[in-house]
Amino acid sequence: MAIRFYKLEDLLRRKGLKKKDLVRPDLLSSATMAKLSRGDNVTTETIDRICAFLHVQPSEIMEYVEETPEEKEERLKRIKERSSKDNARRKAKEDEIF
Questions:
Q1: Which residue, 4, 3, 21, is CA-closest to 12?
Q2: Which of 25-29, 43-47, 94-98 has the lowest mean pLDDT?
Q3: Against a cut of 0.90, is the pTM above it?
Q4: 1-66: which CATH topology?
């Protein structure tokens, strides 16, 4: 399964906006925008803020698209890589403390 945000990009284009226009302290962080661009998970609060800002319904910015087996494998690989990096950072911080 995958939620795609290509509709958001299309909507922004039609409104004369760019993704960077949503990166504001009261709306989205650059990290959250990067998640949207990569197709990573975002919170419903994030979706709510985007919809409120653009005055649209969630279906106007995102869509469920079933993943191909290759896409699923790639997504799981990215998750595993990020998890490994997070664990390495956490271990390094622990080592600094002790």
A1: 21
A2: 94-98
A3: no
A4: 434 Repressor (Amino-terminal Domain) (1.10.260)
